[in-house]
Every structure is written in C-alpha cells, then in structure tokens.
Write a sequence for this structure.
C-alpha cells in the first residue's frame, strides 16, 4: 500500500504489512512492519529492532478482526511508523479473558516448562536458580534455591519426589515439601529434563556429554558417554528402552542397564526430546531440518524435510503428529504426510505444543499469543498475552494450560477446555508430571 498521511486503511488481522514511501532521494521504498495488538498496551508496530507503542483508545476492548488504521507519520523514529485508532473487535476472542492468573517468577525470562503433580501443585524453575512450587490458584507454596540458572523442566515421581537439573552442575531430588533429599554432581550444566522409569530409575543428560542413570536414592547406576553435549530430554519406551539425542548428531537407544542398542545419525545436533507412539515408533526432530520416524530397531520409517532447524519436540494426537519447525507449525499423519501447516510468525519458535482430548492443538504464536487450532477449523482460539511464550505448554487433567511467558507463569482455561489427548505422547515429556515415559492405553 502507498503512504498517504491521514489515509485510513483496513487490515484483516494483526500481522505483517508493507508500506511504500519516498526516501530522501524521492525513490519509492517498501518497508515491512508488524502490527501487534495487546489488551494491556493497546497496540504496537514493529520494524526491524524498533518498536513504537501506542496507548489504548477509548473504543479498544479486544484485538481487532478488521482494524482501521489512521496513518499519520510520527517524528523522531528512524523508520516511519503510524498512529492508528482501533475500531473493530475480534470474533475469536471471548468476552472474558481465559487467563486465570499470572505469577511473576523472576526478573529474567524463564524457559523451564512447568510440571503438575497429581495434587495440582505446579513445579517450575527460573533463571534466578530457584525451583518453585505453586498452588493451583497461583499462590506460592515454597521455593528451593540452587547455585545457578534452572532451564531443566522438573519431573514428579509417584511418591511426590521432584527431580530436576541446574546449571550449577548438580542434579537435585526434593520432597513435595521442598526439602532436599539428595543432589548428584556432574561435570557441566544439566539442562536436560529427567525421565522416570517404572522402577524409579531417573535418567538425564548433561553438557559434560554423559547420559546418567540414578537410583531413587541418588546413587549412580551407570553413565553412558556420547560424542557431544546432551541437552535433549530422554524418553522411555514401553519395554524400558531409553532414547535421547546428542549434539554429536545421533539419536541413541539404550537398554535399561546402559548398553547401546543402536544409534541413528543425523546431520545436525539433536536437542529435541523424542516422542514415542503406542506402536513404539520414535519421533524426533533434528537441527538438520528433518523430522524423523524410526522403528524400534533403529531403522528409518520415514523422514520429512521441514526446512526448519527444529529444537521443538514432536507431540502426538489421536493418529496425528504435531511439531514446530523453524517458523512453521505442522500437523502430519502417522505416515509422515502433511495434513496442514501454519506459519507461526517471522520469529524462531522452539517451544512444544500440546494436544487436547477434543482434538484442539495449542501452540505458542509469536507475537504474544497462545493459539488453538483444529483440523476442521483453522483457529478455535487466540489468547493475547503481554509477551512471548518462552517454554513448552503443559495441560493439566482439568484442561488448564500452563506455560512461561517471559518472567511470568501463566494459567489459561481454554474456551473448549479438555484434558490432554489420550494418545501416548500429547505434550512435552508425555504427561503433566513430565515422567518422560510412554503411556500405553
């Protein structure tokens, strides 16, 4: 569109648009902008690294479906941006906000995905080095301090023990009351999120390139050396096989006693966590831009070139595979055929989506939204936020979805709330407790 000061135009929705203006040499120049709408600040237009915020107008009550923009150049910015008035409302947005509560966790962005115990307690780490326990109503129960940042997502055992790693080179076990049971020293950062076997064995990887198996009392059962950093989180199959990726480009399969069953090479570091189907198929993404499906013997079933170097982990619906690769959100058949794709935005997205029992799939959509989609309807819900989602999504059995949004923990009740899908791996780490163990129905 051409710039004419004072001209009113309509945009169908927030998103990217281009304006053509004359530069100092009277040449026509196209500039790309991104329109973001937020209940709290009103709206903003982003160009490159510059953001101009505009206050809420009296008629602005929710994100627009057809927003009128009154273009007026503003002085003092390197690139021209435009003030505007918002006059329409969004049919996607409920009259009442689905956000149940927000809890400030830190002064820095948090990336530890929350885990949910069977009593509803939410556990999450922050970059101040704290593991936090939070009640379902958003009130703090307790905090436990470690020596450095916590990127690892906690896992909750059947007896209530909480396991997680820290960048202080220790792996921790706490009671449900926040008391230290034991800690185990490794040689580097421990960003890998643990998996818990049916016999209580705890598995995790470390930046020291080793993969560890610990007894419930914290003693070392065995360790397995890989050829690179391990920040991939392990997955446990129905037969006890443990799968994990490494920066050496391999996906490994180990027996419960630590023996190598096989390894599968890719052309890039494997940082995502594998998902395991009910038939034992192992799905994982690599930074080589491919999504892989492997048989239990380590042979390739299929490979899909996504074109995005994915650090997101796949999840499974009832017969479908969902994954974020680069800037795309894909739904695939179990045979690796694309059902549909969704461009998440012109921003890298390495979070993991969640699939609900009603078929809705929720994912992080930069800028500043939680999106819900389903096969029969492109968008079922868009929850506007005050920042980008910085962790994967966890769904509780009552349908509440939890995630980190920068320095805050957010609880959202979807309009069509439903428990997690009854598939074997509907979310990051398989279930709300994040045991990383395949569910067999």
């Amino acid at each position: 569109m051409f710039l004419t000061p004072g001209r009113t135009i309509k945009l169908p929705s927030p998103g990217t648009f281009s304006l053509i203006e004359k530069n100092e040499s009277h040449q026509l120049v196209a500039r790309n902008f991104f329109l973001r709408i937020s209940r709290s600040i009103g709206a903003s237009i982003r160009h490159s690294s510059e953001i101009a915020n505009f206050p809420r107008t009296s008629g602005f009550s929710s994100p627009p479906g057809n927003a009128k923009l009154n273009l007026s150049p503003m002085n003092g910015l390197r690139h021209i941006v435009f003030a505007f008035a918002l006059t329409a409302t969004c049919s996607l947005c409920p009259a009442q906000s689905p956000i149940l509560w927000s809890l400030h966790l830190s002064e820095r962005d948090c990336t530890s995905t929350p885990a949910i115990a069977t009593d509803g307690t939410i556990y999450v780490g922050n970059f101040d080095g704290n593991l936090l326990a939070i009640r379902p109503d958003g009130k703090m129960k307790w905090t436990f301090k470690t020596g450095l940042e916590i990127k690892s997502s906690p896992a909750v055992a059947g007896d209530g023990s909480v396991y997680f790693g820290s960048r202080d080179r220790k792996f921790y076990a706490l009671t449900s009351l926040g008391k230290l049971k034991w800690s185990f020293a490794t040689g580097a950062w421990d960003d890998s999120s643990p998996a818990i076997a049916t016999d209580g064995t705890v598995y995790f990887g470390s930046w020291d390139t080793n993969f560890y198996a610990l007894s419930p009392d914290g003693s070392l059962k065995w360790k397995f050396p890989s050829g690179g950093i391990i920040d991939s989180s392990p997955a446990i199959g129905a037969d006890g096989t443990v799968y994990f990726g490494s920066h050496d480009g391999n996906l490994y399969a180990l027996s419960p006693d630590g023996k190598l069953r096989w390894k599968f090479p890719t052309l890039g570091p494997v940082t995502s966590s594998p998902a395991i189907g009910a038939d034992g198929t192992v799905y994982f993404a690599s930074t080589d831009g491919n999504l892989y499906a492997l048989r239990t013997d380590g042979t390739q079933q299929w490979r899909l070139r996504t074109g995005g170097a994915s650090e997101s982990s796949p999840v499974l619906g009832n017969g479908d595979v969902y994954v974020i690769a680069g800037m795309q959100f894909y739904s695939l058949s179990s045979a690796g055929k694309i059902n549909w794709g969704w461009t998440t935005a012109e921003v890298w997205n390495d979070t993991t989506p969640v699939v609900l029992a009603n078929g809705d799939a929720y994912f992080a959509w930069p800028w500043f939204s939680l999106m819900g989609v389903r096969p029969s309807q492109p968008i079922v819900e868009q929850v506007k936020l005050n920042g980008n989602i910085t962790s994967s999504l966890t769904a509780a059995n009552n349908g509440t979805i939890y995630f980190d949004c920068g320095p805050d923990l957010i609880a959202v009740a979807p309009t069509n709330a439903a428990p997690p899908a009854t598939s074997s791996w509907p979310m990051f780490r398989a279930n709300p407790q994040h045991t990383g163990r395949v569910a067999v129905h």
User: Anything to note?
Assistant: The radius of gyration is 23 Å.
